[in-house]
Amino acid sequence: MSAKPLILMTDPAWFEVAYEINPWMRPTAWRADAAANGRAARRAFEALRGALIGAGVEVCVIEGARGLPDMVFPANAAVVLNRRALLGRFRPLERRGEEDRFADAFETLRRRGVIDEVARLPAGLFQEGAGDCIWDPALGHFWAGWGQRSSRAAADAVADFFGREVIPLELANPRFYHLDTCFCPLPGGEILYCPPAFTPAALSEIRGRAPAAQLIAASDADAAALSVNAVAIGRTIVMASPTAALRRALERRGYRVVGVDLAPFILSGGAAFCMTLRLNLAVEPALATTA
Ligand code: ARG
After folding, report:
1. What's domain 6-288's superfamily in CATH?
2. Which of 178, 182, 184, 194 is flagged as catalytic?
3. Which of 37, 207, 245, 275 is deepest in the core (most CB within 10 A)?
4. pLDDT of 119-149, one tens digit each?
């Protein structure tokens, strides 16, 4: 198996902003010039793919499907760790049709030997994949967003399946409807986050687990640019066009920041992280699981 990070993306041929299931979505702006927006989306997708390849990533692209425009956000398809995938389940009706498509894609990945096991969530839970369940490479556990799209109890289901600790964080604000819109743990142990996204209890959880010096608070402008929705590959961070201040803050800590214009996808409430899904994240076995 290649040592390169392997990342899944979905071809944007069927992408559009056709409905509103989060406060970012602008179907009217999309329809005002759907053809030009479609071309811009294609360019933005290629720019992101190019930035990832430039950062040393191998990108695997699957087809989208007519009528399922948000398939371009495969972060929501599953949680993947150590060659095991737990398929997501969507709360909005508009996205439920994606579940079978992504299940087929994962079955293909299993047949190709990329993934060993593909599993379904227990009934009755919503869990929108890595968009709401982010591996922290420095602390060695998942952080799970809940309260907007994913169920609180899904955090326990993920913990059971992977045998890893999952720290639930309640999301307090509809603008931050997935954890990845407001929270990004970096390889060096820093956490880039938007404080207004979280309940007081979630904030104290974050602040209790990461030293203050490691917490980087994103500004309102960073949140509005969806730059926190970033992909970190070693010391390179790929994100939607960052503010100068955010770029400087990250560069001071030794990161190389690659900004990509993702405007057409921001019209749907998504940016770099949610347009990707890391397929070959591998971590050491947990020493012990706590009861
Ligand atoms: N329009 C999509 C939705 O609302 C955007 C999803 C972006 N994904 C993410 N993980 N933030 O579901």
Report:
1. L-arginine/glycine Amidinotransferase; Chain A (3.75.10.10)
2. 178
3. 275
4. 999 999 999 999 999 999 999 999 999 999 9
